[in-house]
Amino acid sequence: MAKSQVTMTVNGKPVEALVEPRTLLIHFLREQLNLTGPHIGCDTSHCGACTVDFNGMSVKTCTMFAVQANGSDIRTIEGMANADGTMHALQEGFREMHGLQCGFCTPGMILRAYRLLQENPSPTEEEIRFGISGNLCRCTGYQNIIKAIQYAAAKLRGVPLQEAAE
Amino acid sequence: MIPGSFAYHRPNSVQEAVGLLAQFGDEARALAGGHSLIPMMKLRLAKPGHLVDLGGVSALKGIRADGGDIVIGATTTQHELIGSDLLSAKLPILRETALLIADPQVRYLGTLGGNVANGDPGNDMPAVMLCLNASYHVAGKTGERRIAARAFYQGAYFTALEPGEIVTAVRIPVPPAGHGSAYEKLKRKIGDYATAAAAVVLTMSGGKVASCSIGLTNVAETPLWAEEAGKILTGSSLDAATVKKAVAAAEAITSPATDGRGPARYRTKMAGVMLARALARAKARAGA
Lengths: 166, 288
Known about the structure:
The structure holds 2 protein chains of 2 kinds.
Chain A: E1 4-10, E2 13-19, H1 25-32, E3 51-54, E4 57-60, E5 73-75, H2 89-96, H3 106-119, H4 125-131, H5 143-157
Parallel strand pairs in A: 1-5
Antiparallel strand pairs in A: 1-2, 3-4, 3-5
Chain B: E1 7-9, H1 14-24, E2 28-31, H2 37-42, E3 50-53, E4 63-66, E5 69-73, H3 78-82, H4 85-90, H5 92-98, H6 104-109, H7 112-117, H8 125-132, E6 135-140, E7 143-148, E8 153-155, E9 158-159, E10 166-173, E11 180-186, E12 196-205, E13 208-217, E14 224-225, H9 227-233, H10 240-252, H11 264-285
Parallel strand pairs in B: 1-3, 2-3
Antiparallel strand pairs in B: 4-5, 5-10, 6-7, 6-10, 8-9, 11-12, 12-13, 13-14
Helix pairs in contact in B: 9-10, 10-11
């Protein structure tokens, strides 16, 4: 099948490539762009490990073709750190609050949490739980992930962290 | 999982899209949010040779009032339904239902048109559309027509759409101000289809039900409009005895499958429970 040309912005950099129409966006990111932060977990749009930020939306890249992303603006975990190389508040939060154990779900969690906080800078615990309901974690039991997102939300708003109840 | 090969088309207009679908016939499928079709393609249960991506057709997007109706473009996403002030004010049941569909990521891409047109009995919006007496604007090679939602669903994945036709918009008559509505969905987890779900839109007058319409999700091969149950409730005060009769009438028209969500009899009973809960909430929200 003839390849299609796609151009997009990935982590702030212009990208131009040829893709087979059937190439899923997750395969394009991982195998053609070597961005292996987005993970393939379930490959059935349930687990959220492949989540990236796409045109201001959180999307599961296992359920989208790369050709559909032509002209889009994408951010992956590789593009989350601040310009000076320090960690983004969410990355810092996940480290400080032990928001990860094996780390497999973390890139998807952080990218989903990023969009959640863009839309709702001070979410309640319930809003966080609902907001990350498309991302599965098999290690943490979610408690520390919630705290990590609360940490980041507080830091981004410049207010002291209210410790979440155990 | 990697889908079979296909040629990708991205038309800019409805006319161009239906032209492509007509040209490639059985080989072609329309792509909207992709969250039903792409999983099927990855499993190779669908192997279209041509994919017609509707994402570039801006005329298929948007929510607008048109007289006493609200018209929603087919590729309007669940996320956009949730964020619409117009819908929150006039048709709050749509926001409530959309929030119960899948998960946030899926709702950013999944569309109303895809949800109603696919014919999957597990989809939530079809029963809501039966409840609201919506109609679907449909376009094909030979022109445009409208199909009532209540005449659209013929079997699992079988609808009144002819080959090459696409749903371009959903038209919903706005229920009277002061109506009450609710969508009650029992599911095992976020992202699951309903074990059973019920949609209710009713109006009250002087403590009595002036009108009542009921839709049921995933308890038959098609979404169900529980017309008889609605009639039983009309004129009542939603007293326990009448609700019980209506619930029995609704349960009687179900024929769910026994599957991982439970045995058929359980799912039928859950349809009744969802209906009773939806009635109570809709009543509480309705003006006198």
